[in-house]
Design brief:
Blueprint (H helix, E strand, L loop, with lengths): L1 H66 L1
């Protein structure tokens, strides 16, 4: 009976440890997801600025051609 009680205690401790590990992993995953979303947002802003610059460049080329 005493061994069973010890096993129950050990299993409960293992369970608590696993729950804590799962919580930590979930928290880390949420942070990682947020970081990925932030980086995607920054990438989209960069892409938008790149397209704007390309548009300006084309307009300048067009003006040069028309002025020639």
């Amino acid at each position: 009976m005493q061994k069973i009680d010890q096993l129950i205690i050990q299993l409960n401790e293992l369970k608590s440890g696993l729950i804590n590990q799962i919580d930590n992993i979930q928290s880390s995953a949420q942070t990682t997801k947020k970081n990925i979303l932030d980086k995607r947002k920054a990438l989209l802003k960069l892409e938008l600025n790149l397209q704007k610059l390309k548009s300006v460049k084309l307009k300048q080329k067009s003006k040069k051609i028309n002025n020639t």
